Amino acid sequence: MSIYKVWLGCILAMFALYGCSQKSSSTASSNAVFAASTVQASARGIIEIEGGLLALPALISGQVQHIDVKPGSLVTAGQILLTIANHDLLVQLQNTRQEQKIYQTQQRLMDQQIALLQHRFDVQKQALRQGVGSASAVDDAQAVLLTAKQQKQNNALSLEQLLGKTQLLQAEISRLTLRAPLAGRIDQIHVQVGNWVQKSDTELIRMIPHHSLVIHAEVNEAFINRIHAGEQAQVHLETIDSAQVFKAHVIYVGATMERSRLADNAQMSNDFPCYLALDPQQWADAHSTFHIGQTVRVNFL
């Protein structure tokens, strides 16, 4: 009897263990299915800065005289980045100012001369009315007065042109100082002191503005209808040693396909662009973790 009880107990224990095993396997399977079902789509992406990087060209030709920043420097809007020297412009400005002073002096002398000629004309007219002058003398005085006024007008026009030239030269010289258009961080400097640069050179300094980081994801056409603006996503760095997950949300889904930049065979691949913004609460961590141009994996939830 006792052997029968032991045998029956073993059979019941085996059934209990089998039932627990099946339940555990079923639970794990359902969790995996649930986790998979929450991910609507997955795509590769690249970290970008909102508005893009700033490539600062030379605004005027000249020789680099001084560089006030270095890669990694934090700068404020309007801060001087580098200074360019252009001797010819300075000489032109100096000569123009000297010529301007000459014309201004001539204007003052002409004002005095016209005042005297006006007085002479008035005296001749008064004499003619009193019968002691002549009409020819009045005409001569008037002609001389009109000539002087015309000369003053021509001089004033030349002076106005010189003032305009001075302003243009001053504006050109102000461009010799390259300033930061926005607050940000210096990424790269492509010139050295002593280098000659031409106006509109492609890039002297590259700046990263203090804007938000965005993710440019490339979504396959098979999944594009599952993704909509406002939906949540998770962003993972594509590095072996990184397990950190960042929250993000979709801000824009492209309506047309573009040539892929991230696919292994980019020449043969087209995807839909999708832009995501990171959770503001994780901005600080994101800026210290992410780098512009870094690739990430995006899971759309």
Give the SSE layout:
Elements: H1 2-38, E1 41-49, E2 54-56, E3 62-67, E4 74-75, E5 80-85, H2 87-129, H3 135-174, E6 177-179, E7 184-189, E8 196-197, E9 205-209, E10 213-219, E11 232-237, E12 245-253, E13 258-259, E14 270-278, H4 283-289, E15 295-300
Molecular structure report:
- It is a single chain.
- This protein has 301 residues and is an alpha+beta fold.
- Strand 11 and strand 12 form a beta hairpin.
- It contains 4 helices and 15 strands.
- Strands 1-10-14-12-11-15 form a 6-stranded antiparallel barrel.
- The protein has 3 domains: 104 residues, Efflux pump adaptor protein, beta barrel domain (Elongation Factor Tu (Ef-tu), domain 3, Beta Barrel), CATH 2.40.30; 55 residues, Beta Barrel (OB fold (Dihydrolipoamide Acetyltransferase, E2P)); 87 residues.
What is the element string, with H for helices and E for strands? HEEEEEHHEEEEEEEEEHE
CATH architecture of the largest domain: Beta Barrel
| Total tally of structural domains | 3
Strand order of the largest sheet: 1-10-14-12-11-15
CA-based shape: elongated
The largest sheet, given as strand count, sense and whether it forms a barrel, is: 6 strands, antiparallel, barrel
